[in-house]
From TrEMBL:
Residues 57-355 form the ABC transporter substrate-binding protein PnrA-like domain. This is BMP family ABC transporter substrate-binding protein. It is found in: Cell membrane. The lineage of its organism: Bacteria, Bacillati, Actinomycetota, Actinomycetes, Streptosporangiales. Pfam families: Bmp (PF02608). The keyword Lipid metabolism does not apply.
């Protein structure tokens, strides 16, 4: 997500509180394709007047995944919208909520009128700092718990995209055995696991799905430790799996290395990692669960510029094109029609994908 990508979270803000917070806002989530009445603010600044601050999760620009997707959205905003000044700040490993608050506060005090926080670890800090600067528009990726009149929550149906790559894994597995490596065992990453397992079992009900999390909160090193990712994936390949999906941020690089050494296949996450991972491992990445954080970031900045930005959650699901699977390398060309059939069944409601592990 991975989001690296998730490294910043406050364990107390995750789980059921995300759904409870959404309910407390009085009304359901907006989908990314829904119009946005009731915009916050009374006037729209010209795009050139926007001063955008981007606060990354651990890993920052260059993580080949979650943070890079957010950075791509900012880059598109510079090109397509002509936004004015921008500033990007990275998170440190193991930092406190106070450090995250200070990062956001420095941007707001520095005159940045639009601030985007990448990752649910910013939940508490965004809620606190947004209340201090009511004239600044805030967005947070992957969190619904931070609420406020000037906060937009950019959230995704990761379980739906993960269902598709789970189906791909099962269709491609010759051993009826696949694996999932999660960075940190938190509710957000459990959504990836739930969707992946459901997709695999929709294809082959008796398929074996191995699951391994690299760390437990409050230890979030599982998102930034390729060696741990490699060890976990090696164990799965040694045990008989032939396809392994990761939702582990920077640790995913180790999963790709293990797949390469085992002559197995891997599935990337967030970005099309067959394009962004180290060149020597790209050929083992059969597909990626693409989470279009770049689209969400660009949409948010467009809405700020045209005065239609609204507070509360905006959901980027499969129907809205917010998640999908990638086809780079041609590894899934032969099963694309089947994957697209599953996609349409999810969009139509014929298939409901679980977002929790049963």
């Amino acid at each position: 997500m991975l989001q690296k990508r998730f490294g910043k979270l406050a364990a107390t803000t995750i789980a059921g509180s995300m759904l409870m917070a959404a309910a407390a806002c009085g009304g359901g989530d907006e989908t990314a394709t829904t119009a946005s009445p009731g915009a916050t603010g009374t006037s729209a600044p010209a795009a050139s007047d926007l001063k955008v601050g981007l606060a990354y999760d651990i890993g920052g620009r260059g993580d080949q995944s979650f943070n890079d997707a957010a950075a791509a959205g900012l880059d598109k905003a510079k090109t397509e919208l002509g936004v004015g000044q921008t500033k990007e700040l990275e998170a440190g490993s193991g930092e406190t909520e106070a450090a995250k608050e200070e990062r956001l506060r420095l941007l707001a005090q520095g005159g940045f009128n639009t601030i985007i926080a990448v990752g649910f670890a910013y939940s508490g800090p965004v809620k606190k700092v947004a209340a201090e600067f009511p004239d600044v528009k805030f967005a947070i990726v992957d969190d619904e718990a931070a609420t406020g009149a000037n906060i937009t929550n950019l959230v995704f149906a990761e379980h739906e995209g993960s269902f598709l790559v789970g189906a791909a894994a099962a269709l491609k597995s010759e051993k009826n055995h696949v694996g999932f490596v999660g960075g940190v065992e938190v509710p957000l990453i459990k959504k990836f696991e739930a969707g992946f397992a459901a997709g695999a079992k929709a294809v082959k009900s008796d398929i074996k799905v191995d699951v391994k999390y690299l760390s437990q909160p409050p230890d979030f090193s599982g998102f930034t430790d390729p060696a741990k990712g490699k060890t976990a994936a090696e164990g799965m390949f040694d045990a008989g799996a032939d396809v392994v999906y990761h939702a582990a941020g920077g640790s995913g690089g180790g999963v790709f290395e293990a797949a390469k050494a085992a002559n197995g296949k891997a599935i990337g996450v967030d970005s099309d990692q067959a394009l962004t991972a180290a060149p020597e491992v790209r050929d083992v990445i059969m597909t990626s669960m693409v989470k279009k954080v770049d689209v969400a970031v660009l949409d948010f900045l467009k809405n700020v510029a045209n005065g239609s930005v609204k507070s509360g959650p905006v959901v980027y699901d499969l129907k809205a094109g917010g998640v999908d699977y990638s086809t780079t390398g041609g590894h899934v060309d032969d099963i694309k029609s089947k994957l697209d059939e599953y996609k349409q069944k999810i969009i139509s409601g014929e298939i409901t994908v679980p977002d929790k592990v049963s």
